[in-house]
Amino acid sequence: MACPDLITSDDRCGDVALPVNPFVANRYHFGMLLGVADLETEQAYHRGKSWLHNAWLHGPGVVWGLRVEVRADHDEVVVHPGLALDAHGRELRVADQMCVNIAEWFATRRPDDLEVDDAPDGGVQFIVHVELCHDSCLDRPVPSVAEPCGDASFDTAYSRSIERGLPRIVAGPAPGAGPFPYPRLRQLAGQEPVTDDLVTTALDEIAAADAADGAALREVWFQRLAAEDTMDLEPEEGAAWSPEADDGCVLLAELQIHLDPDGGVVDDESTTVDNWVRSSHVRTRTIQELLCHARGEE
């Protein structure tokens, strides 16, 4: 199945700045005169509440789909349909397959920091990773009044904003995970080496407790350490309410690409796709079922 190439055929219409404010809401009253600012406040409040929740309580990750593959016969990197949440809590949707001609990208758009190695066949090899980023476009132009005062004249203005996820190729390997949030809780669970004195105290007390009291004491320490970890959380410098200040793109895959001397993608084990580097969201119901199953095996 062919898909449009983002380099040669995609019409980037730029970023559309929509209002976002999760902490200011309209207070309606009878006879209230509504204007554009009021409607934008209404929109900004609900959009902001959703993004605030997603960003802080879920974090970035793939919800479904978005498999990345390389089609060597077309020199394409393909991102399949799917849904993800970015670091700002925005929902990134890919409705149809999106493609990047990786050979053309290398020939015309490769960044200066891309490390390229010579291949034994006279071609080249390099490593990149694929991210999914928020993109928005204006749509549906309608007639509008150009000026609110003076001699009224009519013009057209866009009445819709279309949001989507847009893949991009980034030089170098996928960034390593971390630092992870909630380090004390991770140390308590044995996921990271214990470096915090408070966690050491917690583990010593739990180990010294009677078997009947161990579970309750672990829950007490879980609450204490969660309090310490959440007090350490804060938005990055430059971020208003979101955890991160950058563009918040979601990592999808790491690619090792081998181009032959003619610039085409080599279809063998030297060209690889690693979709396992991504973060993924798991349904709450599935987590409950997994926890119940694990509890039953104790």
What do these coordinates show?
The protein is an alpha+beta fold. It folds into two domains: 36-179 and 233-296, no CATH class; 183-232, no CATH class. Helices cover 28% and strands 27% of the residues. The strands form three sheets. Strands 7, 8, 9, 10 and 11 form a five-stranded antiparallel β-sheet that branches. The chain has a three-stranded antiparallel β-sheet with strand order 1-4-5. The longest helix has 22 residues, at 36-57. The protein is flat and about 70 Å long. 20% of the residues are buried. The model has no long low-confidence stretch (mean pLDDT 92).
H and E order: HEEEEEEHEEEHHHEEH
Spans of at least 5 consecutive residues with low confidence: none
- Characterize the main sheet: 5 strands, antiparallel
Which shape, going by the Cα principal axes?
A: flat
Helix count equals 6
SS-based structural class?
A: alpha+beta
Instruction: Give the number of DSSP strands.
Output: 11
Return the average pLDDT rounded to an integer: 92
Number of domains: 2
Radius of gyration (CA) equals: 25 Å
Distance between the termini: 48 Å
Strand % is 25-35%
- Helix fraction bin: 25-40%
Features:
298 residues, alpha+beta, five-stranded antiparallel β-sheet, three-stranded antiparallel β-sheet, 6 helices, 11 strands, 28% helix
What is this entry, summarized?
With 298 residues, this protein is of the alpha+beta class.
